[in-house]
Amino acid sequence: MSALSEMSVADRYRSAADTFADRVRGTDDWDAPTPVAQWRARDVVGHLTTWLPALLAAGSPVRLEPGPSAEDDPVGAWTSLDEQLRRLLDDPASEQIVFAHE
Fold this sequence. Notes:
- The chain is mostly helical.
- Helices cover 53% and strands 0% of the residues.
- It is built from 3 helices and no strands.
- It has helices at 9-26, 41-59, 74-90.
- The longest helix is centred in the middle third of the chain and has 19 residues, at 41-59.
């Protein structure tokens, strides 16, 4: 495997997302505590599936479709976001999108 610095943005995303997806699919106790005080496992997924779309929308024209709630369906919530991000990164037109966050 290449060093992260040698990988494309899409490949870096896939590397991190694949590892996270394995953990999401392998979770059997969504109310388990996390290293973040007061957070449960489902809260981590909820944070990523709400924060990242909002961040993209605040700094670019990218608007992701809402997926299932992480509270109700953490696996579905992550899968929905991950699929949309992979499509975005695989679309050559996405290379023209400028992200500027103030």
